[in-house]
């Protein structure tokens, strides 16, 4: 079975388990250095925060005869539910408040040439052959404590980051 079919079958299994509780879909995330990863993302209908599970390692396990689609779909669903529970205390309104976010923003250096596509629409500064990118740390997660993600174009009062 090809990766595309595997992802669709896992999504089908996750969707059956989730019922009307969550919305699940397939996404492809662009990561550092041009790496693209397939994931299933799950969001609750009333919240704009979601969780995703990358599928490449699970596909390799499936191809090597480690487990079947049903077992993998069950594991993905369980992990997504755990992550969704972890996000219950995250307040999206905080992302619009400079006084809250200014302590959660930090810089990271990435290769400029290898990340041109990833940098589109994100605030960065060129430094030699590198780009300084900005990430926001999400705090208040029950299980993992915190998580970071690239900042998108955002404004805080008179400050604009794009």
Itemize the secondary structure elements and their pairings:
Elements: H1 3-18, E1 23-30, E2 36-43, E3 50-54, H2 56-63, H3 69-86, H4 98-101, E4 105-111, H5 116-119, E5 124-127, E6 130-141, E7 145-150, E8 154-156, E9 159-161
Antiparallel strand pairs: 1-2, 2-3, 4-6, 5-6, 6-7, 8-9
Q: Choose one word for the global shape.
A: flat
Unreliable segments (pLDDT under 50, ≥5 consecutive)? 153-157
- What is the typical, i.e. mean, pLDDT? 80
Beta strands, count: 9
Helix content class: 25-40%
Please give a quick description of this structure:
By secondary structure, the chain is of the alpha+beta class.
3D architecture notes:
The protein is 31% helix and 35% strand. With 162 residues, the protein is an alpha+beta fold. α1 packs across α3 (69-86). The longest helix has 18 residues, at 69-86. It is flat.
Descriptive tags:
alpha+beta; 4-stranded antiparallel beta sheet; 162 residues; flat; 9 strands
